[in-house]
Amino acid sequence: MNAIRGFIDSVATLITREAPDRLVVCLDLDWRPRFRVDLIPSYKAHRIADQDGTAGERPADESEEVPDDLSPQIDVILSVLHAFGIATAGAEGFEADDVLGTLAAAERRSPVVVVSGDRDLLQVVADEPVPVRVLYIGRGLSKAVMFGPAEVAERYRIPEERAGAAYAELALLRGDPSDGLPGVPGIGEKTAATMLSKYGSLEQIMAAANDPRSSLPKALRAKLLAAADYIAAAGPVVTVARDAPVQSSRDDRLPRAAVDPARVAQLAKEHGISSSIARLQKSLDGLSR
């Protein structure tokens, strides 16, 4: 039951900390979307194995390796959210990151806080049309860090005026072994940041690489031109979608009490999660004060 308790406790902590009027839990309906694999076949390939035990091609029935005891806990988590009336959202053929990015990009009324332990989401930070901040919880909630454009620019030494887009380009250049993205061989985070700071964008970096008169060092020019096909293909793979076909389970207004208290009580008793349920309700009670 550790995942159930941990998730509910985290949601309760976030509600207490941020006091949101609206909240959506975003779902991974396709953890390895076809459109990304078609462009970069190695994308997350190391997380699966096909029937002959080799990774790479995407079988029709592929699934990410998940501990046997985790999937049932996810079902319980979704049941608890539904009983409380907390909205969930997903998009067929897209990852949870894309759902988060789409909802953040579509917001026109209220400031947005995107909560994630995935640095890829740093690319959605913005000041307009509403502030979009990323609460990065990669080191746990107790060490969470709030990022906006200024913080992303300062942390990664990239242009603040386009910090979100520049972060995506930084990730493209340096690569990400955890996602099976090779990056440009010989270009790490520091070099990528230096080029983005100097030239402003990946487009301008590639323009310099293609211009023998530019001040771009010959060695970097050679590395970039050798990886031109990868760079051209990797953009949609690295970039969080802003136009995913998101479907929500209900209105995203955060309830002040469970919409189905009998079901909540049943779940609490059945799974021994009464303390976590009580913490979640206490956090909601705090919104009414």
Name of the top-level CATH class: Alpha Beta
How many domains, in number, for the residues? Answer: 1
- Beta-strand percentage range: 5-15%
Mean pLDDT: 92
Helix content: 40-55%
Secondary-structure class: mainly alpha
Radius of gyration over all CA atoms, rounded: 21 Å
Tell me which CATH architecture applies here: 3-Layer(aba) Sandwich
In which order are the strands of the major sheet placed?
1-2-6
Provide the CATH superfamily.
Answer: 5'-nuclease
Q: What best-fitting shape do the alpha-carbon axes yield?
A: elongated
CATH topology: Rossmann fold
The helix tally amounts to 12
Count the strands?
6
Report the sheet with the most strands, covering strand number, pairing sense and barrel closure: 3 strands, mixed
Walkthrough of the structure:
The chain is mainly alpha-helical and 289 residues long. The chain has one domain: Rossmann fold (3-Layer(aba) Sandwich). Helix content is 46%, strand content 8%. It is built from 12 helices and 6 strands. The strands form 2 sheets. Strands 1-2-6 form a 3-stranded mixed sheet. Strands 3-4-5 form a 3-stranded mixed sheet. Strand 4 and strand 5 form a beta hairpin. About 3% of the residues have low confidence.
